[in-house]
Specification:
Blueprint: H1 2-34, E1 36-38, E2 45-49, H2 54-68, E3 73-79, H3 90-108, E4 115-120, H4 130-147, E5 151-155, H5 162-178, E6 182-187, E7 210-214, H6 219-228, H7 230-235, H8 238-241, E8 248-257
Parallel strand pairs: 1-7, 2-3, 2-5, 3-4, 5-6
Antiparallel strand pairs: 6-8, 7-8
Bound molecules: zinc ion.
Zinc ion is lined by residues 50-51, 54, 161, 164, 189.
């Protein structure tokens, strides 16, 4: 019995290690071989981010490049980020993260007047009540209608975090509600990162239409903006953060929404 359990454990660990290696290979493949080159455009854009840090990790270079082209860009945070640290009071943490977002985005060229905090509870987006969901979709649709972006950036539909997948779904619903026509780019945050608890679960077809944006000229700004998120840099695993300290960003372009 003991031996059997021992071998099962070894088998399980081996399978997990293989999954982790697989995700690293796919990330490398997407980054170096699979992707087409993306050129930053002057099209007005909205970046939707579930938490204060996703916009910088996933799109920090893009935001800085667009700013340098004097392109109008707005950043919308859906949650208040209050769950990242258990030992800090929620009200305090919300203020810390908001200030970090303002500081990080200032480095990337975004004024605080172009940042929107919708303040839904961190971790709740998958479990919104019918009324909350309706209110959220309306808020997102109003932002889309008033700003009329040509491009929208949002987390990858399979990003391995409930709030990230919910953000994708809520923004999709807002596209229908607002009837705006936009080009959609999905950015990966947790998609390629594997540890023992979050294994890789998507098929290669979902890797189609991947684009690679060179952010070399603004890489220093992105590095500084990530570091402006002091509270988050303290808790992220270093292997996770390393994915964003590279002079490129990955996006998945989807058909125009209407
Ligand atoms: Zn997030």
């Amino acid at each position: 019995m003991y031996n059997q359990n021992f071998y099962y454990k070894i088998q399980e660990n081996l399978l997990q290690s293989l999954e982790i290696i697989k995700s690293k290979i796919i990330f490398w493949w997407i980054l170096n071989i699979k992707t087409q080159t993306l050129t930053v455009s002057r099209k007005p854009a909205i970046v939707f981010a579930p938490h204060q840090d996703d916009e910088t990790l996933g799109c920090g270079g893009l935001i800085a490049l667009k700013h340098e082209l004097e392109t109008p860009i707005k950043v919308v945070f859906l949650t208040d980020g209050q769950k990242s640290h258990l030992h800090i009071k929620p009200e305090e943490l919300i203020q810390i993260r908001k200030q970090e977002a303002v500081n990080a985005l200032k480095i990337l060229g975004i004024a605080s007047s172009d940042i929107y905090f919708l303040d839904y509870m961190d971790g709740s987006l998958m479990q919104l009540s019918k009324e909350e969901r309706y209110r959220m979709i309306n808020q997102l649709a109003q932002l889309l209608q008033s700003f009329q972006p040509d491009e929208v950036y949002l987390p990858h539909r399979k990003d391995k975090h409930n709030d990230h997948q919910a953000t994708y779904d809520l923004v999709q619903a807002a596209f229908i509600e607002s009837k705006v026509q936009v080009e959609v780019f999905e950015y990966p945050i947790w998609l390629f990162w594997n540890d023992d608890t979050q294994l890789f679960e998507f098929n290669l077809q979902e890797m189609d239409d991947s684009y690679n944006l060179c952010i070399k000229s603004v890489y220093n700004k992105k590095q500084r903006a990530i570091k402006a998120y002091h509270s988050q840099c303290q808790i992220f695993p270093s292997s996770f953060l390393r994915q964003f300290f590279i002079p490129r960003e990955i996006f998945f372009k989807r058909p125009i929404q209407n």
